[in-house]
Amino acid sequence: INHSNEDLSFMTTYKDITDIQRVAAKYYNDKSFCTVVALAIAAGIGFGKAFHTYRKLGRRRGTGTYRPMQEQALAKFGLKLEPVPNNFGCKTTKAVGKIAHKLQGIFWVHCTGHVGCIRDGHYYDQAAKRNKRNIIISRVVPINN
Asked: d(Cα 81, Cα 2) in Å, to the nearest integer?
């Protein structure tokens, strides 16, 4: 994936998941926003742009989303999900956290009632150290791929 200036500005705007959570609570009065964070990381956009993208698709503040809405949101930025065979052998978010530093590219991590995102070895997920069961890991790729 081509990293544009917008991608780089996103990475300098937010230091880590805690910083993103602070912005969500302070400026958007939001909770249960893991898919908003994942979209922001995957698309290289700010939390606000991701928040409003989901809002236009029908997400209500403080609620989660289902996979079809997540796929619609990614498509707005020319992206889609391609499942990773065998989930890199990971069964929990904690296991993903242990290998994330080795992964180059962008990955969407679905697990029980939650979504996280890896971007070039950095795992943006408040559940990264918990044993939430993985459902599926997908590579985020351009739609025309």
From this structure: 16
